[in-house]
Structure formats: structure tokens, C-alpha cells
Amino acid sequence: MVELLTVVGIGVAVFVGFNIGGSSTGVAFGPAVGSRLVRKTTAGALFVGFGFLGAWTVGRNVIATMSSSIVPATQFTPIASVAVLFFTGASLLISNLYGVPASTSMTAVGAIVGLGLASGTLNQALMFVIVSAWIVAPLVCLVIGVVVGRYLYPYLDRYIAFTTFDLHFIQLDRSGAIPRPSINPNASPQDIVGSLSVVVIGCYMAFSAGASNAANAVAPLVGAGGSLTVDQGVLLAVVAFGLGSFTIARRTLETVGDDITELPILASLIVSVVGGTVITILSYLGIPASLAVSTTSTIIGLGWGRASRAATLAELATPAPDGPELDVSTGALVTSRAEDAPAGPTIGDIARDEKPAAKPDDAPAVPDVGAEGPADLDQRSLFDPAAAKRIVTMWVLTPSLAVVTSYPVFAFLL
Question: Which residues of 129-147 are buried (b: 16+ CB within 10 A; e: fewer)?
Fold first, then answer.
């Protein structure tokens, strides 16, 4: 019976890692594939390689925390391990159904907390630290995004241009016996530097994803009375990541790549660097945290920061003088007129119609904050409060549901 549960646990772990690899590959290399800098197969290989590096080095700290520090390792019986992995896989299903980047890490920890509460072995001091990090990390990403979007982004955008190529960045001449690689002839020196930056940051995101997500797939098995060693757990997680990277990630890369090409590549690089750095630091400290939450918080901040350039801080702090107006066609109250509101894309949709056009030799000066009118900003809206509210609600709801639903299960099993 124990051997059967171990096999089932490994199967569920592979399923979780398979889904993580499929989704995380698109997040890490969507900009590179969408800009035709690398092919999908190359993106999968790079993700597996750098994901393994992140899991083998920094990721083992997170595995140790989730497998033996939140609750004692002895609590991870084969049945409990399968149950924790089940709730982790359920979080992936919920996020896919609602189209919200829910945190697999937070939900996995929530299931372990349910186990700890049912057994009376929860490390409350450690959980206080983890929950505090879950609150502080997104706020740090949000603030950095706001500052960059409001004060730095226009200057970066003015001097940094990225080209979206019609042909792949690396071309292969197959006329001879041995294919000869060459760089796209339309690429300028600035494009070469920018293209290398996109690929390097994609590798960095893969490293961060491996560091933070390996524990989600295998931590319960590592703590399950020694079913797997940490090294075996890392290898199992990376193999599962690879299965997802080379299969379902191809569709994810198409979707994310198309979306990201509509997102300015510069903005996606900023989001990747900020989100990936925060998660790498937390993973080094052994704190399980969500790469999706950090990157999405940066997107929210960046979008709001860019949209808020139409007003000074004093104007933002001053309530609008006009009260709500009645829309006679619908009978609804309108709090502001469309022509008065700075625009901005919804979450994950910054500057949908913005193209990375080449910069002219005499680029116009960047308007000061407060002098950039709404007409100068993307009218498709850079920030959608309703979408942000829905995403934050799901971030809080999914780990809470994991605790509430797993507690009675573990109370019954124990």
C-alpha cells in the first residue's frame, strides 16, 4: 500500500511539474519567442537548463522549508503527501478556469498549513515570516513599478528601441553540407544588444522559476519519510518541467508570445527583472513565494505609474471637483468623463497597440510629469482597478481555500 501511494505521489508530482513547466516557459520566454529571437524548441531547452540551475542551487532552500520546516517532515506520510500535491494541482486548475495567475506556491503552503493545523504541529513563527513576505514582496514590486513607470519609463523608451523581426534573429543557411548560422541582416547593433538582453533575462526568469517552483512539485515527497532525497526531488521536478516545456508550452508560447509582442518589450524586461529578482532573493532565504504574483504586481505598478504621468502628485491627491454625473442613455452614475481620465491597458495588456517603432534622430523631449496630457498616453487604459481587484482577490482566496478545504481532510486522515 505504501509503495502504491509513493508511485501515485510521484505521478501527481510529475503532473504538477508538467503544468508548471508549461506555464512558466511561456512567462520566461514569451518575449523572446514573440520577437522571433529564439524558436520554441530553443526556449524549452533554455528553460529546462536554467530552471535546473535555479532548482539545484537556490531551490533546495525552498524545498527544505516546505518539506520539514513549516511542519515536521514526519507529518508527510504517503497519504498526506498525495493530498498536499492534489491541492497544489487544484490551484493550477482554478487559475486556468478563472484566467488569473494564482500562486501555486501560496496554495501549496496553504495545504501544508492545513496539515499542520490538523496535526497541531504548525510552525507559527515561520508562517508569520512567510505571510509577511507574501505581503511585503508584492508591495515592493508595485512601488518599483510605479516609480519606473511614472519617472523613468519615458526616458528609457526614448533611448532604447527594440525591433520585432519578421524573420528569426538567427538565420541558418542550409545550402551547404553544414548549416551556417548568421544574424538577421535587418538587425542593427542596438537590436543585437537588445535581443541578447531579452534572451538573457528570459534565462534569468527560468532560473527564478526553477528556484521557486521545484518545491511545489516535490517538497511533500522529500518530507514523506525519505521517499525522495532533495537531489532526487530536484531531478524529478526538472524532468517534469521539461515534459511541460517541450509539449504544452508550445501553445503557451504562442499565446504569451503574441500577447507580449503587443506589450512593449522594454516593459516586459522591466517586469521580468523586478519580479525575478524579488523571487530569487526570497528563494535564497528559503521562503516560498509566487513569481506570478511578483511579476503581476510589477505590471500593475508600471501601468498605473505610466497612466498617472498626466497629473502631478498634488493633483492625484486632490479629489475631482465634479460629482458623479447621470448617463441619460443607461441611467447609471458616471464618476468621471472619459475625456478627463488618463488611459491605460488592463492588467497584462499594457499598451496593446503600442509598436516598438524606431526612434527618430531628433526625438522630442520627454514631457514633465503633469505636463503629459491624456492624449499623449495610450487611450486603451494603462490600469484597470477592477481587474487589479479581481487578481488580488484570487491571490488571497486560493491559499485560504487550500487551508479551509485541506484541514478537514487531514483531520479525518489523521
Answer: ebeebbeebbebbbebbbe
Among 256, 295, 247, 217, CA closest to 20? 217
- The answer to whether the beta carbons of residues 159 and 359 sit under 8 Å apart is yes
Q: Residue 76 burial by CB count (10 A; 0-12/13-18/19+): exposed, middle or buried?
A: buried
pLDDT digits (tens, 9 = 90+) for 99-145: 555 678 888 899 999 999 999 999 999 999 999 999 999 999 999 99
User: Three cell numbers at 253?
Assistant: 508560447
Share of the chain above pLDDT 70, in %: 71
What are the tens digits of pLDDT across the range 15-66?
889 888 887 888 788 777 876 778 889 999 999 999 999 999 999 999 999 9
Q: Is 180 helix (H, G, I), strand (E, B) or coil?
A: strand
Cα angle for residues 101, 215, 126 (degrees, 5° grid): 95
Q: pTM for this structure?
A: 0.78
Separation between Cα atoms, residue 331 and residue 320, nearest integer Å: 21
Which of 136, 139, 120, 118 has the alpha carbon at shortest distance from 128? 136
Amino acid sitting at position 308: S
121 φ, ψ (degrees, to nearest 5): -120, 15
Residue whose C-alpha cell is 520566461: 28
Burial of 170 (0-12, 13-18, 19+ CB in 10 A): middle
Contact at 8 Å (CB) between 108 and 157?
no
CA angle 206, 385, 298 (to 5 degrees): 25
Supply 256's cell numbers: 504569451
